[in-house]
Write a structure and sequence with these properties.
six-stranded mixed barrel, 2 domains, single chain, alpha+beta, Lipoprotein-release_system, transmembrane, elongated, membrane, MacB_PCD
Length: 408
């Protein structure tokens, strides 16, 4: 009774030797080596560009997030009915969430005038001590004025109004005051207590802060009843549902990401589109891997046929060309990673590219490549390289030694 023939495992030493031979420069077929080099350079360039581009997109998104997180506040409670946000609600929330910081506010629109310049603004009435605990930009700008009629304004508004710290500006409110037999908009001179710089010109030109007492005095706002409540927390996404469950029906809560949802959704879509477009660079480079391996197969047909007649199996032939493609691709990935890391280091260390701060919120190019994006780049590139190496390897393994040797 005969035993079935044992299938021998591929000879790895033989495979490695042939791969080393095929990686050398061939004087008779220089275009094969050039094609392989182009594939290597294309993949390296694709990985490098993807790393830098994703790093810039992430850095820009984080920079905008940081600015908007401060100026829009992590969480905001808004009333649906008059007097719904009051000291009683704040005291209840403080008791249930002692780790959170709260800053109640009044708000209204005003016209700011000084030195012949006029600008529409949004003014918040806040408790300066409470606001300083949740708004680092406001805290840094606040001065030492004790008057209730003091304002902290943005750098852009200060420049347009020619109103530095210590200067006075006139605020015109929508409320009317009696003058003789007629009326005119309520106006009041405020002293500039400080000038803040958020990094976003739109905010610096449009927002100012004054005291709660100024609102109560000028606009007859009810003490202890507010237009809204700003809440600071390190984890607003985790806290918002817990806070919402404790709120009465006449108020709503929203996060800073909801106030700017369309903006960040657009940035996320742009990031995905950029990733797919730049991945095409690697896809094009992978075509060079296919062409290089196919040219190698065609030029080495006699050698492949001879190896088959001497005992090399289809699996070994397939492994030779598959690994050859992987070597070209993986070395391209390594080189691209090193170049991308070098490029990111240069951009973050040296001020090579400067940007208009009024548009982007920062004058230095922000670069921050996350591990998730880096992993996605490596995964996408690896899949393309694997698929590119499969077809030439399969084609080489299908070489018929009898047909090749007969024709030769």
């Amino acid at each position: 009774m005969s035993t079935p023939a044992r299938i021998s495992s591929p000879n790895t030493k033989f495979i490695r030797h042939i791969i080393k031979h095929y990686l050398k420069y061939d004087k008779e077929n220089p275009f094969i080596f050039i094609s392989a080099m182009l594939a290597f350079l294309g993949i390296a360039a694709g990985v490098m560009v993807l790393m830098i581009a994703m790093g810039i997109m992430n850095g820009t998104q984080k920079e905008f997030t940081k600015k908007l997180f401060v100026m829009n506040y992590p969480l905001t409670i808004l009333p649906l009915e008059e007097n719904a946000v009051n000291d009683t609600l704040i005291a209840s929330l403080k008791e249930q969430f002692p780790h959170l910081q709260f800053s109640p506010y009044y708000t209204t629109q005003v016209i700011t005038k000084n030195d012949g310049a006029v600008q529409g603004s949004l003014v918040y009435g806040v408790d300066f001590d409470k606001e300083s605990k949740i708004n680092a930009i406001f805290k840094e700008a606040t001065g030492h004025e004790t008057s209730k009629f003091r304002v902290v304004i943005g750098e852009g508004l200060s420049f347009e109004m020619n109103a530095p710290k210590g200067e006075k500006v006139t605020l015109y409110f929508s409320e009317q005051q009696a003058i003789g037999f007629g009326t005119m908009p309520l106006q009041k001179r405020f002293i500039v207590d400080g000038v803040f710089k958020s990094g976003l010109k739109a905010y610096d030109k449009a927002i100012m802060y004054t005291s709660l007492e100024a609102f109560e005095k000028l606009l007859d706002r009810k003490h202890g009843s507010y237009d809204g409540l700003h809440i600071y927390t390190e984890n607003p996404l985790d806290e918002i549902d817990a806070i919402r469950s404790e709120l009465p029906e006449m108020v709503v809560i929203e996060g800073w990401w909801q106030q700017n949802g369309n903006f960040f959704a657009a940035m996320e879509m742009e990031k995905k589109a950029l990733f797919l477009v730049l991945l095409l660079i690697i896809l094009v480079a992978s075509l060079n891997i296919i062409s290089s391996l196919l040219m190698t197969v065609m030029s080495r047909r006699r050698e492949i046929a001879l190896m088959r007649t001497l005992g090399a199996t289809k699996v070994e032939i397939k492994a030779i060309f598959f690994r050859l493609g992987l070597i070209i691709g993986s070395t391209g990935i390594v080189a691209g990673t090193l170049l991308g890391g070098l490029g990111i280091w240069i951009l973050t260390t040296f001020d090579i590219i400067s940007m208009p701060a009024d548009v982007y919120g920062t004058s230095k190019l922000p670069v921050d490549l996350t591990f998730n994006d880096f992993g996605l780049i490596i995964l996408g590139t690896s899949i393309i390289i694997l698929l590119s190496a499969l077809y030439p390897a399969k084609k080489a393994s299908q070489t018929d030694p009898l047909t090749v040797l007969r024709n030769e």
